[in-house]
Write a structure and sequence with these properties.
single chain, 369 residues, alpha+beta, Double Stranded RNA Binding Domain, eight-stranded antiparallel beta sheet
C-alpha cells in the first residue's frame, strides 16, 4: 500500500513542509530500528503535534487486534489527545478503507474532513489545514519571553549587568512531564549538565537553591565573586515545554589586564558577554542531548537581552584610562539582540560562534544608538 500510495505520501510531505511544519513519515524517514514495526509507528505518533490521516482506495494491513495499522495509529493519536486532520481521496474504496473512512468522518465522533483528487490537491489541502491550526496555537510562557518587551522583566541581580538568554523549541510540546520535573532525579540530571566540564554554567564551589514553581524548575547560584563563571550570579529556569531561561552576571569573567582600576566598574567587557553566551549555548546543547536523545526537537527560537548596563560602556579590551565618559542613555534600558525570536538548529547550539558574533555586534550597535 505504501508503494502504491507513494505519490500521495510525498504530496503530503510537501503540504506539511509548505505550512512551516516538520513531516514525520516512518517508512521514508526512519532508519533500521531494533523496535518492532508496530512500536516504531506508535512511537512516531507520540513525537507529533498533529496527526494527518489520509485514506485512499485500500485500507492496508491489519494488525492482530483486527484494526488496520493506520487505525491503530489514529487511535494512538486520539489517546494522546493529538489533534487529527482527515483527508479522503475521491475514489471507490475497498471494505476496510471504507469502514475506516466512515469512522474518521462520523458526524458525531469523527473529524470534519476534506476531499482530494490528485496529489496536487492533497498538497494544497494539507497546507491550508495546517496553516489554519498552526496560526491558532497559543504561545507558551517561554516563547512569549522571546519578544523584546518581555525581556524587561526585572533582573534577579539588579546591581549587576546581567545577560538573559531565552530559548524554546519550535515545536509546542510537553518536553518534561510534571512528575519528572519535580523529581530529585531530574534535578540531579540538570545539575550534572550545568556543572559538567563541557558546560560550566554552575560551579560545585558555590551554594544554590532549587525550587519548582509555575511549571518550571528554577535554580539560583549565589552572587559570589569569581572568574570564568565560577561564583558569578546565575539563575537557570527549565520549563515543562522545554524552554530554557538563563540569567547570568557579565562582569569579571574574562581575564583582564592588571591595573585596570576604575575600568572594572566603568565598562563591561565584550569578552565577558561572549563567555556567558558561549556557556548558555553549551548548556542548551547538552541539556537537549540529555533529555531528547532521539532528537524529536531539531529547531529552536531564542533571544538575548542585556540589562543593568546603566552608565557603563561595552568595550572589546578594557584598558586603564585617567578618566571615563559616563553615558546615561542605557539607564534602565534592556538591550535585546533581535526584534523577535531567532531560529536556530541543534548544530548551531553546538557550534554557536557565528551566532555569538551576530549577538555582540547587535548589542554594541544598540548600546551606541
Amino acid at each position: 500500500m505504501v508503494e502504491d500510495f507513494r505519490n500521495f505520501r510525498e504530496a503530503a510531505r510537501a503540504g506539511i513542509s509548505a505550512a512551516g511544519a516538520e513531516p514525520v513519515l516512518v517508512n521514508e524517514d526512519f532508519p533500521s530500528l531494533s523496535d518492532s514495526p508496530r512500536n516504531a509507528c506508535l512511537d512516531a505518533v507520540d513525537t507529533c503535534d498533529y496527526f494527518v490521516a489520509i485514506v485512499g482506495q485500500r485500507g492496508g494491513w491489519s494488525t492482530p487486534s483486527g484494526r488496520l495499522v493506520v487505525e491503530e495509529e489514529y487511535d494512538r493519536a486520539r489517546e494522546r489527545r493529538i489533534p487529527v486532520l482527515v483527508f479522503l481521496q475521491d475514489v471507490s474504496r475497498d471494505a476496510d478503507a471504507d469502514r475506516y473512512a466512515s469512522r474518521l468522518s462520523d458526524f458525531v465522533d469523527g473529524t470534519f474532513r476534506r476531499v482530494f483528487g490528485t496529489p496536487e490537491d492533497l498538497t494544497r489541502e494539507i497546507e491550508r489545514g495546517l496553516r489554519h491550526v498552526l496560526s491558532s496555537v497559543p504561545m507558551s510562557p517561554v516563547r512569549k519571553m522571546l519578544a523584546p518587551h518581555l525581556f524587561a522583566a526585572p533582573s534577579p541581580f539588579p546591581s549587576t549587568p546581567t545577560l538573559r538568554y531565552a530559548l524554546s523549541p519550535e515545536r509546542h510540546d510537553e518536553v518534561v512531564d510534571p512528575v519528572t520535573l519535580e523529581s530529585p532525579a531530574f534535578l540531579d540530571r540538570v545539575y550534572a549538565v550545568a556543572h559538567g566540564s563541557a558546560v560550566r554554567l554552575l560551579s560545585y564551589r558555590y551554594s544554590k537553591k532549587a525550587v519548582v514553581k509555575d511549571r518550571s524548575l528554577m535554580i539560583v547560584q549565589s552572587d559570589i565573586g569569581g572568574r570564568h563563571g565560577e561564583g558569578q550570579p546565575v539563575r537557570l529556569e527549565v520549563s515543562e515545554d522545554g524552554g530554557i531561561v538563563i540569567d547570568a552576571g557579565v562582569t569579571g569573567r574574562a581575564p583582564r589586564s592588571p591595573g585596570l582600576g576604575l575600568a572594572n566598574t566603568m565598562v563591561v567587557s565584550l569578552g565577558d558577554v561572549e563567555d556567558v553566551l558561549a556557556t548558555s549555548f553549551r548548556f542548551a546543547a547538552a541539556f537537549y542531548d540529555e533529555i531528547d536523545r532521539f532528537k524529536r526537537h531539531q529547531r529552536f527560537l531564542y533571544n538575548v537581552g542585556l540589562s543593568g548596563l546603566e552608565y557603563r560602556a561595552l568595550v572589546r579590551d578594557p584598558t586603564p584610562q585617567p578618566s571615563y565618559r559616563m553615558s546615561m542613555r542605557n539607564r534602565g534600558v534592556v538591550l535585546t539582540a533581535f526584534d523577535e525570536g531567532r531560529l536556530v538548529d541543534r548544530g548551531t547550539l553546538v557550534k554557536p560562534g557565528s551566532e555569538i558574533d551576530r549577538i555582540v555586534a547587535l548589542l554594541v550597535r544598540k548600546a551606541a544608538d
